[in-house]
């Protein structure tokens, strides 16, 4: 009989404790409704630690709602604010887990209730979307303050809460890229590639740039650009990326095919014409390379590389003739050297306008000034020789020629 009485007493104690914790949950909810957030938060954390109330989705949902409002009212917008937002996110995740990811349950419907502008407070969601909106507003505020590190943290939180909001996901990737957080940038830009109906072109551009420039992984960059070109075959920028990467990977045959196909669709693309010239130059076809470089300059007279490479081909051809002259026998020297050197001088003259334009485009480039000095010296253009000597002396000092 004593054992029975003792057992009943223990049950009574357990019931009292459980009932007490439920009262704590109700009290937390009331304090939350009155705006007493700190008191509500202390109470709900106590309820979470209880075996029974800590296993209920409603307890975690209340905890998340309290944390969301604490996050929302914290105007400091520091790492501590971010941490509170992430804590709220985890509370909502736990809520949904306890509901067995059943989006049709009452708690889940409240959890994912939308926040609608111009609607009374009792019609507004207090769960995931309220937290997302608060995170977005803080991200924008930090972006306007040019604090990209924290702007990214808040955009990242908002994106993780609502992966279907492509604008926020893109901003999470964009700000991650700005602060050189390449892993986060790749995560969010890659996430966008799985969204049906979304224009993924900018995401692909960022992923190619990260793989190529940040990760120094041209193979991965080429894989991404190939995937992108399947979806956007007419994009000229992707065509240029593909050619550049093929050249970088020393896939010359594929690069030639890609270039010729690109030029069919865009015959006046100066960047592609330059690469076509480069391929021809690498194969030993200097005349063919020069023709492409000159086409690039015709397509874009302000194209520095086109002007520079066209001039360089003329110089290479002139020097090849000079090498031949130096290797002539005495008998051939008398018969051929004069006409051959005249031909070489003609090539130097052809090079001049291209290097002059390149120097105009990059007026502080002393390497090109030195080329122009030496070409004018060769052609005995004394006034120009002195002009470039003065420019180089100003830039490099009196002894520039003896370096």
Write a concise synopsis of the structure shown.
With 403 residues, the chain is an all-alpha fold.
Describe the structure.
The protein has 403 residues and is mostly helical. It contains 19 helices and no strands. The chain has helices at 2-34, 37-48, 57-73, 79-98, 106-111, 128-144, 148-161, 166-178, 182-192, 201-214, 218-231, 236-248, 252-265, 270-282, 286-299, 304-326, 330-361, 366-378, 382-396. The longest helix has 33 residues, at 2-34. Mean pLDDT is 90; it is low at 8-19.
Q: Strands, helices and their partners?
A:
Blueprint: H1 2-34, H2 37-48, H3 57-73, H4 79-98, H5 106-111, H6 128-144, H7 148-161, H8 166-178, H9 182-192, H10 201-214, H11 218-231, H12 236-248, H13 252-265, H14 270-282, H15 286-299, H16 304-326, H17 330-361, H18 366-378, H19 382-396
Helix pairs in contact: 1-2, 2-3, 3-4, 3-6, 4-7, 6-7, 7-8, 8-9, 9-10, 10-11, 11-12, 12-13, 12-14, 13-14, 14-15, 15-16, 16-17, 17-18, 18-19
């Amino acid at each position: 009989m004593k054992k029975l009485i003792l057992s009943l007493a223990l049950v009574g104690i357990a019931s009292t404790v459980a009932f007490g914790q439920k009262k704590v949950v109700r009290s937390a909810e009331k304090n939350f409704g009155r705006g007493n957030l700190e008191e509500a938060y202390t109470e709900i954390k106590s309820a979470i630690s209880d075996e029974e109330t800590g296993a209920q989705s409603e307890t975690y949902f209340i905890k998340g709602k309290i944390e969301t409002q604490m996050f929302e009212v914290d105007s400091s917008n520091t790492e501590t604010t971010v941490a509170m937002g992430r804590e709220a996110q985890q509370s909502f995740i736990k809520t949904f887990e306890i509901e067995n990811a059943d989006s049709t349950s009452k708690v889940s419907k409240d959890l994912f209730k939308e926040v609608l502008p111009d609607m009374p407070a009792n019609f507004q969601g207090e769960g995931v979307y309220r937290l997302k909106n608060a995170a977005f507003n803080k991200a924008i505020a930090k972006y306007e303050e040019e604090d990209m590190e924290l702007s990214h943290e808040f955009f990242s939180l908002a994106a993780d809460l609502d992966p279907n909001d492509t604008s926020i996901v893109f901003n999470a990737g964009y700000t991650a890229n700005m602060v050189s957080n390449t892993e986060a940038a790749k995560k969010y830009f890659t996430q966008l590639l799985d969204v049906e109906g979304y224009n993924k072109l900018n995401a692909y551009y960022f992923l190619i740039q990260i793989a190529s420039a940040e990760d120094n992984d041209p193979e991965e960059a080429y894989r991404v650009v190939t995937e992108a070109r399947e979806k956007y075959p007419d994009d000229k920028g992707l065509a240029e990326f593909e050619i550049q990467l093929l050249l970088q990977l020393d896939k010359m045959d594929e690069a030639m095919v890609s270039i010729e196909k690109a030029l069919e669709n865009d015959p006046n693309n100066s960047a592609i014409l330059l690469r076509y010239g480069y391929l021809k130059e690498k194969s030993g076809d200097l005349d063919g390379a020069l023709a492409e470089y000159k086409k690039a300059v015709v397509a874009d007279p302000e194209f520095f590389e086109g002007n520079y490479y066209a001039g360089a081909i003329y110089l290479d051809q002139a020097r090849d003739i000079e090498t031949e002259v130096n290797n002539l026998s005495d008998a051939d020297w008398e018969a051929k050297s004069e006409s051959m050197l005249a031909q070489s001088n003609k090539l130097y003259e052809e090079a001049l306008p291209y290097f002059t334009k390149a120097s105009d485009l990059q007026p502080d480039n002393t390497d090109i000034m030195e080329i122009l000095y030496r070409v004018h010296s060769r052609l005995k253009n004394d006034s120009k020789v002195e002009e470039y000597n003065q420019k180089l002396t100003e830039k490099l000092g009196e002894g520039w020629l003896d370096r």
